[in-house]
Structure prediction request, 1236 residues.
Amino acid sequence: MAVCIAVIAKENYPLYIRSVPTENELKFHYTVHTSLDVVDEKISAMGKALVDQRELYLGLLYPTEDYKMFRKLHNSYTDIMCNPFYNPGDRIHSRAFDNMVNSMMMQVC
Amino acid sequence: MTPTQWDFPVELCCRPMAFVTLTGLDVVYNAVHRAVWDAFCANRRADRVPISFKVLPGDHEYPKCRTKRTSYEWYIPKGILKTGWMNKHLNLVPALVVVFYELDWDEPQWKEKQSECATRVEIVRQSLQGRNTKVAVVLIQKKTPLPPGEDVIASERASALCNACDLSGKSLFVLPHTDHLVGYIIRLENAFYEHAQTYYYTEIRRVKTHKEFLNKTTHQLLFVRHQFKIAFFSELKQDTQNALKNYRTAYNLVHELRAHETNMLEIKTMAGFINYKICRLCFQHNTPLDAIAQFRKHIDLCKKKIGSAELAFEHAAWMSKQFQAFGDLFDEAIKLGLTAIQTQNPGFYYQQAAYYAQERKQLASMLCNHDSSVIYPNPDPLETQTGVLDFYGQRPWRQGILSFDLSDPEKEKMGILSLQLKEKNVLHSELIITLLSNAVAQFKKYKCPRMKSHLMVQMGEEYYYAKDYAKALKLLDYVMCEYRSEGWWTLLTSILTTALKCSYLMAQLKDYITYSLELLGRASTLKEDQKSRIEKNLIKVLMNESPDPEPDCDAAAVKASQKLWADRVSLAGSNVFTIEVQDFIPFVQCKAKFLAPSFHVDVPVQFDVYLRADCPHPIRFSKLCISFNNQDYNQYCVVEEAYQKSDILEQSSQGTMCLVPGKTRKFTFKFVAKTEDVGKKIEITSVDLILGSESGRCVILNWRGGGGDAASSQEALQAARSFRRRPKLPDNEVHWDSLTVQASTMIISRVPNISVQLRHEPPALTNEMYCLIVTVQSHEETVAKDVKLTAGLKPGQDANLTQKTQVTLRGTDTCDDSFPALLPDIPVGDLQPGQKLEKPIYIRCGTVGARMFLVYVSYLINTVVEGKEILCKCHRDETVTIETVFPFDVAVKFVSTKLEHLDRVFADIPFLLMTDILSASPWPLTIVTSQLQLSASMTPVDQLESYVENVVLQTGESASECFCLRCPPVTNASGVATGCYIISWKRSSPVESVPVVNTVITLPHVIVESIPLHVNADLPSFGRVRESLPVRYHLQNKTNLVQDVEVSVEPSDAFMFSGLKQIRLRILPGTQQEMLYNFYPLMAGYQQLPSLHVNLLRFPNFTNQLLRRFIPTHIFVKVRLWEVPCV
Prediction:
């Protein structure tokens, strides 16, 4: 299930962020932003432990996430990056990505 | 803060300790008793047994024990746990009462004393009627007791006393008042502790026996109560494992209770208490995960148990307290050594507590918004007779009523109303802020900067709701930059919106303007209509009017602020605000760009300033000015337009001083750089854009450097990465993203219009006066004035080169070491247009190797730039690398008169010195002369004259000389200085009359050896067949001794000879012996002479080998004259 999906640039700003109940958007933005604390910590720990660098899934930030969902999202993100007209670092505006995110959110409702 | 309804009672939160009372101690007037009491209670460290002591008089009345119930059949409990119960067992009912009594074993009035003691014990027993409390007696004695068994009287009297007091022997103690008081006291309290444990054990047993009488229908509450009591007694007994077990059982039982709206609060209160105890014990047992699991379970079970909807805020308050208490427990455990992690730390619990506190506030504002006419009910339904509740968690107006039906709905209504009215007065924001700041402190500790920021935003918002706008603004302003730097525009906009409200309500002009600027900017995610409203407000502020209030502000606060704004308007002065924009993202963007990275001083410096507004409506500005590191230029770079106040809202975009949204405006500036700035950097230090006017309010937007704000560096990076083709724009417009800031430029000197040429013949030869001809020709159109030439070794090379290089303008004399390596600023005068000037420079290089030489010509010239005449300094430089080589190689060798190589010479015997000059120069050399300067120890055999005078050597050619020398005997064995060889030379090239160079070559040392006998032969240069050939051998004694010499001549096939064939003779010191032979050659050709052998008896080392060096071995024999065939 997903109520909010975000793609964050490596400089920690959001490339894409969308949540289902739009009235509570701000709260989700804050949640995503605060969860970056854990991401930061996990990434810095990864450098030390020399774990498999190809494994991009950091694991659970909060105990509600799903690995399959990550793969799906990541594949879609990869597609965007492969688009020659996309400039890495720009905010994402893509209908295909929107649709995919919608489908992931649909599963809840 | 006074404890509220929701705070846990102290008796729940403390660590339960066995309660022991001490009687018979007069701690006020009796010093001994005082000392005893001090020993009990002072400095109780962790290693002492956990007992709480209390001194009470002997006749103290303990709480009465109710008569024991024999049957529970008709008993219906009125609640779960009485409010006084925990306190009673912690502080009122002792586990042990100790009677102190001063009595020595040898007391003369023993009988009387014994009975008095028994009476005291009896009084205590009376007061404890029905309780299992133990009694013990301590005899305070003056004498040190004898070892057990030795004092017969003591044991007798002890057993007598025990009998009299009805005590077991274990309950009678003796406390000698001697030096080791503390030691005795520790032993005593250990014994007390054992008694106390027994007491609590029996209490647990007692409670357990009740269980049998209970039934599940009517006594459900008692199950919880008893289980809680057992657990609490276990804690008093310090049996925490069992306590935990029993609390867990109690917790499960609480949730089995039939719950209804009327008793929900009681159930939750007890569940909260028991949960607190369980978590506390789990942390104490160092099983934090159990504590967390229990707490989660507790929250899951209770989350939905809201109870009365009209009092829903109570549930939120209760939830908040649960989280807060758990956070406190967690934090305490960490202080005692537990380690927490980023994702599991007390901060989360404080945050949740704050969340529920916020919910409580919301619910309260919804449920308690009674009209002010509603008055608090009288009589107060919250008053009880005793002032306290009988049972935890019950309603004061219906205590002990277990029925779920409300017998008196009116009373219930009043009760709820009074609770609601009370809630109305609670300072919720204060509670929320306290919890949030607790959470902030925790998240700071566990490396969660963003969580910390988020909570600080919440704190700021809470301060805003609490109308403490100054604090709100301070917090929001503090965290704003975090969100700005990470590019979370939605969050930044939300924070800015609140901050704008705060600044409006406080009428803080500068803050209001700053936040407006950013909310209008490109980072703001506000809708157009909002932006439009803000822009209009901003324009009002600029015109020194009051802005419209921000939406959703408290009406009373708006009223107050309107008055503040009105005051501001009337207030004169301080209406200029400088806002430094690089730390935020204003709605005007600026980029300044020099057209080139460098400008020649004789062309005007040009740069553009691009401005772009992101606000919804066009905006006018009054002035644009640029500041430079050299402030003299500031005056040339100002755009100013006076405009009428009424024009400001005019929608025309015609004016140059108007920024149209989405359009890039370009301003071009031009100025002439000062000649002093040649070689310096001109930097834009700031760009100031002035909005508003002096008459109204003036806002100076100040960009440091050439523009750019908090977001521009990231934008520039993205623009640089982008491959996107930008749509074509009209010629006079540019794409904002494609513009880059260029805030500095170099001023470089005017391009010189002269040529400098160097003429020379490399390589240079060591020590010669090398000629470098510099030709300067002017191509200027006017006179080049004050031409100066700098020539010589380029600075910055090896320091040794400076020592070994000399430069001069005079080539006729050889210069010495005092000459400089660089000739600076040689005045040459003026150069007319087209004039050419030649200047020879002479360089002397003392060592071989490559050197860089610099020729630098500078001059002054007048030019006109932009109608302004300036005097420019121009210069041109040339460098040249010149290799220096040796002109020739000189080889020197010593040979004997027979031209054989010598590694040493013999004293007094002539030898030859041969010199060989091999030209290494690519140019022909003329050897002017050469000269041999001998040292004192050498003497020439004949005239020393040069054989190479005026010899010209081409490359690779060599010239040799030979000198015959003699060395008198010396005592020095190591070697003798020969002298030096001076070659005077110059280049053969007919350039100038260059001076002759004298090259001095130090000749090698030679080893001189003396020999005892010198033999030299005196013979013609050739012989003829069958013609007599006289040979005279001279044997010279070179020693101070008389020499015995054996001389013999070995015959040769080619000769016949006459003379002494073998002889032995003596030669006196310093004299010589002559031996004459007549050789008669028999054969023609190069023939071996009969060899002379000399044997010195005193010097066996003197061999014929040595002799061969001096005398010839062969001679050329010619044929007889008449035998020569006739031609």
